[in-house]
Design a protein that fits this description.
This protein is mainly alpha-helical and 509 residues long. 56% of the residues lie in helices and 4% in strands. It contains 25 helices and 6 strands. The strands form 2 sheets. A 4-stranded antiparallel sheet has the order 1-2-4-3. Strands 5-6 form a two-stranded parallel ribbon. Helix 2 packs antiparallel against helix 3 (78-88), helix 2 crosses helix 4 and helix 4 (100-120) packs across helix 12.
Length: 509
């Protein structure tokens, strides 16, 4: 049934038509009676492939913001609230909209985008766990922002059977209700709303003795209803994810949707660092050593250190680091000079030209398919090709063992307290948040709000703090030829394998 809903919801691509335009003038306003939903019924709308992708990416951004806020401010509070309000306002505004058509469209995109990501994140237990945690946190935040009347209306719409006690019933148990609260007066009990709910749905409150029990029901104050409702949401969502996972194989026949769904969990959502004409030449080989200490992310700084000490790094490190340097403004001519100056200390210049120069020109779109390859994002570095012994590529927060990572952070003079904070984030697999905290510690800023998604973003944010965004260079800027269209490095597998084979042959020699 889930797969059939999805198939009915798909639509042929309409050239030049974007979502939210005139094709949806016929709105069924009764479909979304409330701004919150339990997402129990899949959408049956017609959805273009363009809208499908746009909605998925926008909701994924929101869930990433939720994860960041939850880790940064685990006790919530004012900073958590301000961050969340700023980040999710454009996609799902908290206030009630006066424009009925706009309100419908916002609720529709909330509904459709949730189910798109449900399809993308139901494939493995880890993905389901992550999706469920972020959706529950988002639901909790939005529920907390509702006024009492909206909460009551929502409970009635979802048919949760939580009955509000009338004054006569409250008066008959007022002393017990007061005893179940913290220093509650009976007059306060009479002014507050209390709900009668099945006790098994309030086990946490029962365990902490914060609810009055009678005849199989718990009597819960309105202020304590949030975890109850979130628990009901979590229970239904978990069951729905399992059902969606069973239905997913039926979509394998659709060659348009499946690649998009499988790539969403690794999707990079930030700025494109494919290399621009304006940046080429802003960084020269002479700048790299000092910039590596000032503004490089940990993954690139350790590669530069290895290169400086051994004058050689393996293929994976050269690809990761070379494209990063390209992204920060190292031109092709300077890249050749940079790598030649390092490698020629361990080999002849002739050997470098024969075995390594082609690969550098290839990354700049001057050889092979002449594609303009983009620097690796954090997700690509974390998820792809874990480094083996002797390799320098990868993410230190993801791939280093804890002791080695601690030693490295200590050598960079990260404070002991800061190292503990970073290691706690690493322990919980928040690798990009650990990198963001490393950024704050090494730049002596607190709560910078920077969410690291890309090594080149780390560099740009660092230069903004240190020089106002300037790439201080020891040489005058030069103009580079316009690059060809950007392309991901993975698309040229055969040539990539060839370069890796060169490394193996070199090691054998």
């Amino acid at each position: 049934e889930m797969a059939e809903h999805v198939k009915r919801g798909k639509k042929r691509v309409k050239q030049g038509t974007s979502w939210g335009q005139e094709e949806r003038q016929g709105r069924d306003y009764g479909r979304y009676p409330h701004k919150l939903q339990f997402y129990e019924l899949p959408p049956e709308d017609e959805v273009s492939l363009e809208e499908f992708e746009e909605l998925a990416i926008e909701r994924l951004k929101v869930l990433k913001y939720v994860e960041t806020a939850k880790v940064r401010w685990p006790k919530r509070g004012g900073e958590f609230d301000a961050y969340m309000r700023q980040k999710i306002h454009g996609f799902m505004p908290l206030e009630t909209l006066d424009d009925q058509r706009k309100a419908f469209d916002m609720r529709r995109q909330d509904h459709v985008s949730h189910f798109i990501l449900r399809l993308a994140y139901c494939r493995t237990e880890d993905l389901r766990r992550w999706f469920l945690a972020q959706e529950c946190e988002l639901f909790r935040y939005r529920l907390e922002k509702l006024n009492p009347k909206d909460v009551t209306d929502f409970l009635a719409i979802q048919d949760l059977h939580y009955t509000i006690l009338d004054d006569a019933t409250k008066e008959g148990m007022v002393s017990q209700l007061a005893a179940s609260g913290f220093r509650l007066l009976e007059t306060q009990v009479m002014r507050n709303d209390y709900f009668q709910i099945p006790f098994e749905q309030a086990l946490e409150l029962v365990r902490s003795r914060r609810a009055f029990l009678r005849n199989g029901f718990a009597y819960v104050a309105r202020a304590d209803m949030i975890p109850i409702v979130v628990g009901a949401f979590r229970s239904r969502m978990s069951a729905s994810l399992a059902m969606t996972a069973r239905a997913l194989p039926q979509l394998e026949e659709d060659s348009r949707l499946l690649p998009m769904l499988t790539s969403l969990s690794k999707q990079y959502l930030g700025k494109d660092y494919g290399g621009s004409v304006s940046k080429a030449g802003q960084v020269t080989p002479a700048d790299v050593p000092s910039l590596s200490k000032e503004s490089f992310p940990l993954c690139m700084r350790v590669i530069q250190e290895t290169l400086s000490s051994t004058h050689h790094i393996r293929h994976g490190g050269r690809q990761q680091y070379g494209l990063f340097l390209k992204g920060i403004g190292l031109s092709l001519e300077d890249a050749l000079a940079f790598w030649r100056s390092e490698f020629s200390r361990a080999m002849s210049t002739d050997k470098f030209e024969k075995q390594y120069a082609y690969n550098i020109r290839h990354n700049y779109g001057k050889e092979g398919k002449r594609a303009n390859y983009t620097p690796y994002s954090c997700m690509k570095i974390i998820m792809n090709n874990a480094p083996a012994t002797g390799d320098t590529h990868g993410c230190p927060f993801r791939h280093y063992d804890p002791d080695r990572l601690k030693v490295k952070l200590l050598s960079y003079r990260v404070p002991a307290k800061g190292i503990t904070e970073v290691m706690n984030l690493v322990k919980d697999s928040h690798f990009q948040l650990a990198c963001a905290r490393y950024f704050e510690l090494t730049h002596e800023v607190e709560n910078s709000g920077v969410s690291i998604q890309h090594p080149n973003q780390f560099f740009d944010e660092s230069r903004k703090l240190k020089t106002g965004g300037e790439h201080v260079s020891t040489e005058s800027h030069r103009t580079a030829a316009p690059p060809p269209a950007a392309m991901d490095q993975e698309e040229d597998v055969d040539e990539d394998a060839l370069f890796a084979a060169m490394d193996m042959a070199e090691a054998a020699a």
